[in-house]
């Protein structure tokens, strides 16, 4: 059977539990058609590059799928009808990667470093600069 990587974006006002229910719903659809769903990664609520259907954020989810094309096509059809799904994309791949994706590796790396947005960074003493953070302007004749 063909192998697929499938990513979908769920609306920002849907809870994480509802996203898991969506994953289970589509997983059941694939398994009912004779396929299997391997790795499922929830990347969490992330900002979008631009608004999609008045949403600025979305819940991102990756699924590794081993299923016939008809099962994937039916899943995509149902996602297109769902109001909770903003976008989805399916890639056919030669082999499924069972290691954590680049998104999960990045999040693990950020967690070890303390993550983003822990608070202000220490930028040293800026008290010796006159007029705030900019150096004084020179006159043209100088």
Give a quick precis of the structure.
The protein is of the alpha+beta class and 142 residues long. The protein has three helices and four strands.
Can you describe what's shown?
By secondary structure, the chain is of the alpha+beta class. Helices cover 30% and strands 33% of the residues. It is built from 3 helices and 4 strands, in the order βαββαβα. β2 (36-52) and β3 (55-66) form a beta hairpin. The longest helix has 17 residues, at 16-32. The radius of gyration is 23 Å and the shape is elongated.
List low-confidence stretches: none
Percent of residues in helices comes to 25-40%
- Helix-strand topology string: EHEEHEH
Mean pLDDT: 83
Oligomer designation:
single chain
Largest sheet: 4 strands, antiparallel
Strand runs, count: 4
With strands numbered from the N-terminus, the spatial order across the biggest sheet is 2-3-1-4
List the SSEs and their pairings.
Elements: E1 3-11, H1 16-32, E2 36-52, E3 55-66, H2 69-81, E4 85-93, H3 102-113
Antiparallel strand pairs: 1-3, 1-4, 2-3
Features:
alpha+beta; 142 residues; 4-stranded antiparallel β-sheet; 3 helices
């Amino acid at each position: 059977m063909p192998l697929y990587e499938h990513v979908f974006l769920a609306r920002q006002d849907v809870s994480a539990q509802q996203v898991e229910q969506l994953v289970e719903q589509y997983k059941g659809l694939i398994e009912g058609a004779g396929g299997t769903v391997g790795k499922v990664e929830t990347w969490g609520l992330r900002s979008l590059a631009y608004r999609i259907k008045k949403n600025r954020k979305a819940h991102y989810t990756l699924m590794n799928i081993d299923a016939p094309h008809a099962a994937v096509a039916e899943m995509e059809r149902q996602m297109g009808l769902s109001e909770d799904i903003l976008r989805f994309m399916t890639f056919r791949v030669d082999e499924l990667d069972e290691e954590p994706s680049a998104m999960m590796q990045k999040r693990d790396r950020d967690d070890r470093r303390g993550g983003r947005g822990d608070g202000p960074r220490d930028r040293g003493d800026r008290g010796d600069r006159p007029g705030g953070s900019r150096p004084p302007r020179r006159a043209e004749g100088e």
